[in-house]
Design a protein that fits this description.
- With about 260 residues, the chain is mainly beta.
- About 10% of the residues lie in helices and about 55% in strands.
- It has two domains: about 25-120 and about 255-265, Immunoglobulin-like (Sandwich); about 120-250.
- The chain has helices at about 1-20, 135-140, and strands at about 25-35, 40, 45-55, 60-70, 75, 80-85, 90-100, 105-130, 150-155, 160-165, 170, 180-185, 195, 200-205, 210, 215-220, 225-230, 240-265.
- Strands 2, 4, 6, 8, 11, 14 and 18 form a seven-stranded mixed beta sheet that branches. The protein has a five-stranded antiparallel beta sheet with strand order 9-10-12-17-15, with no helix packed on it. Strands 1-3-7-5 form a four-stranded antiparallel beta sheet, with no helix packed on it.
- The longest helix has 18 residues, at about 1-20.
- The N and C termini lie far apart (about 60 Å).
């Protein structure tokens, strides 16, 4: 009897572990379903297209369309535009697809593709510590001077921004002294991005940073070209001061999905 009870508890524990495993989905999702998914030649199927914003940010200018149907023919445009979708917003629409009257085999599979393009932005606030020469000398002498990392990373579900300083923080202040910070943007999501326009990259910190190197950028592989900005130190820091660089990168992103439909004679 004790053995049966022990086995029962083991099974309950194992099943409980399986059932409570979290399912994580992030970002903007496109889901496709065909009803029915197997059709005869000349018959129709109804494709449902679901758009789910699982991101923590509102996305704008959402354009969804079925852009490739393989052997099937669309009866209409099969697209939808949505001005904005807040976090956890959901939308859907339907599309009728028809199989050809003849196929070259007993049955064939054809793939249908849909995509959702949208506008969003990656924002970050980078802290820049600046120390006076006197305070630096004092802390070095007493062994209390601590440097901070050269590089910092910020990301959302689609892009990663790597910020790299030419000198360790805190920067030692001196009037007119120059230092530099570079920025690298990478695609880390499961979607597509081709270009970030110059006007969509806003990097500001009045009196501290200038970015003449910013231009329209095109992706190569998963990474955009690195660009560098110049930091001009103020020369009036008395002890230790915190300045901020505000970063706002607006971009267009696209996610896709597909589904196979089987056609039979």
């Amino acid at each position: 009897m004790k053995l049966i009870l022990i086995l029962f508890l083991v099974v309950v524990f194992a099943v409980g572990c399986v059932n409570t495993a979290p399912i994580i989905t992030k970002g903007v999702l496109v889901k496709l379903d065909a009803n029915p998914q197997e059709i005869f030649t000349g018959a129709k199927t109804t494709l449902s297209i679901d758009i789910d914003n699982k991101d923590v940010k509102t996305i704008r200018d959402v354009n969804v369309d079925v852009f490739e149907t393989g052997l099937l023919r669309k009866s209409a445009q099969c697209s939808k535009s949505i001005a904005e979708m807040k976090p956890n917003a959901f939308d859907s629409f339907f599309c009728s697809l028809q199989a050809p009257g003849e196929i070259g085999a007993q049955k064939v599979a054809t793939t249908v593709f849909a995509r959702a393009g949208f506008t969003t932005s990656l924002t970050a606030t980078q802290l820049v510590k600046i120390i006076s020469q006197n305070e630096y000398d004092l802390r070095k002498k007493t062994g209390k001077f601590v440097t901070e990392p050269l590089s910092y990373a910020y990301r959302d579900n689609n892009l990663e921004l790597l910020v790299e300083f030419s000198d360790n923080l805190p920067l030692i202040d001196s009037a007119g002294k120059k230092s530099y910070v570079s920025f690298t943007i990478r695609n880390i999501g499961n979607g597509f991005i081709e270009k970030i326009s110059k006007g969509e990259i806003k990097i500001t910190s009045p009196g501290l940073i200038s970015c003449p190197d910013i231009r329209d950028m095109f992706i190569s592989g998963t990474q955009f070209p690195k660009f560098t900005c110049e930091l001009t130190l103020p020369g009036d820091i008395t002890f230790l001061s915190d300045r901020t660089i505000n970063i706002d990168i607006a971009y267009n992103y696209e996610v896709r999905n597909s589904i196979d439909v089987e056609i039979k004679r």
